[in-house]
Specification:
Layout (H helix, E strand, L loop, with lengths): L25 E3 L5 E3 H6 L15 H8 L5 E4 L17 H12 L5 E8 L2 E8 L10 H17 L3 E7 L7 H20 L4 E9 L13 E4 L10 H8 L10 H6 L5 E2 L5 H12 L6
Parallel strand pairs: 5-6, 6-7, 7-8, 8-9
Antiparallel strand pairs: 1-2, 3-4, 4-5
Helix pairs in contact: 4-5
C-alpha cells in the first residue's frame, strides 16, 4: 500500500500507479484551438475551428491525392552521400543517418505515380522533417527523374514544395540543383505536359528561386510562408518594418506571384479541374 494517499481531495490512486497521458493525443493550433489528433487526421490535418493547416509530409499528401492511397513510388532507394566530408556541429554523414533513422525517409523528397480521380499523376513531394526539407543532390535528381517519367509517359507533374532551402552541407552541389531542375522543367514545358507547383509551409530559399515558382500554375495552401530569405533576414537587411502578413501565401497572391490559394480539402478537386481544363477533357 502506498505510504501517501490524498484521500482528503478524493484522490485514491497511488503515485506509482498513475499513468501519463500519451503524447500526440491532442493538437494545439497557433491560435490556441485544441483538437483531438484523430479528428485532426480525419479533417486532413486542418484545425476545424480556425482552418490552420498543420504541416504534413509526403505520406499524408499521397493519401490525400491518390485514389485509395494506391501509388508506385519512383526511385525510392536513392540516398545522399557526404561527398565533401562536411562537418559542422556533427558530421554530415552522421546527420544523414540520424535523419533517416528518425523519419524513416531516404531523403527530403519522395516521388510517386498513381491515379488521382481516375487520371494518372506524378507527384513529387518534399518532407520538411528530413533536415528541414533541404535541397541537396538527391532532391534535385529525384525531381529530375520524376519529370523524365512525366515526359516519357505524358503524365501531368505536381511538385509539392516544403523546404528551408539549399542544403548547406552539400555546398555548390546543392546550388546546382536550381539550374538542373529548372532545365528539366523547360523540357516538360516543351513537351506540353502540365506542371502544377504547390507551395506549402514553408517554401523558402533555393526552392522558391527555382522549381517552386515555375509552375504553369503556382498555387499554395492558406497561411503558408513563401519567400526567398526569411522575414528576419529581410528586415535586418533592409532596416525596414515589414507589412503585416509579409510572405504569407495571401500576401504573395495579392502581389501577383500565385494563381490561387486552395484549402487542403479542395486540393484534389481543384488540381484535377485544372488538369481537365488544360487538357480539354470533360470535367468530372
Amino acid at each position: 500500500m502506498a505510504w501517501f494517499k490524498r484521500t482528503e481531495k478524493g484522490i485514491q490512486t497511488a503515485t506509482e500507479d498513475k499513468k501519463d497521458v500519451p503524447k500526440g493525443l491532442w493538437y494545439k493550433s497557433p491560435t490556441g484551438k485544441i483538437v483531438d489528433a484523430d479528428e485532426l487526421a480525419k479533417n486532413l490535418w486542418v484545425s476545424p475551428e480556425d482552418g490552420f493547416h498543420v504541416r504534413i509530409g509526403s505520406k499524408e499528401y499521397f493519401e490525400i491525392l491518390f485514389d485509395d492511397n494506391e501509388f508506385t513510388e519512383l526511385d525510392a532507394n536513392i540516398t545522399s552521400k557526404d561527398t565533401l566530408g562536411f562537418i559542422d556541429t556533427k558530421k554530415y554523414s552522421d546527420r544523414l543517418k540520424d535523419a533517416m533513422d528518425k523519419t524513416k525517409l531516404k531523403d527530403a523528397v519522395r516521388t510517386a505515380v498513381g491515379k488521382s480521380k481516375g487520371k494518372d499523376l506524378v507527384v513529387c513531394c518534399m518532407d520538411f522533417a528530413f533536415i528541414g526539407g533541404s535541397m541537396g543532390a538527391v532532391v534535385g535528381e529525384k525531381i529530375a527523374r520524376g519529370i523524365d517519367y512525366s515526359i516519357k509517359n505524358k503524365i501531368p507533374f505536381l511538385m509539392i514544395s516544403k523546404s528551408g532551402g539549399a542544403r548547406m552541407m552539400e555546398a555548390a552541389y546543392s546550388l546546382m540543383q536550381l539550374a538542373k531542375t529548372s532545365a528539366k522543367l523547360a523540357q516538360l514545358a516543351d513537351a506540353k505536359i502540365p506542371y502544377i507547383s504547390l507551395c506549402t509551409d514553408p517554401t523558402t530559399g533555393g526552392t522558391t528561386a527555382s522549381y517552386a515558382m515555375l509552375g504553369d500554375i503556382n498555387i499554395a495552401e492558406p497561411g503558408a510562408l513563401i519567400g526567398f530569405a526569411g522575414p528576419r533576414v529581410v528586415k535586418d537587411t533592409t532596416g525596414k518594418d515589414l507589412p503585416e502578413g509579409f510572405q504569407t501565401s495571401e500576401f504573395v497572391l495579392e502581389h501577383g506571384f500565385l494563381d490561387f490559394i486552395t484549402p487542403r480539402k479542395e486540393l484534389k478537386d481543384k488540381l484535377n479541374l485544372y488538369i481537365d481544363l488544360i487538357q480539354n477533357q470533360p470535367i468530372r
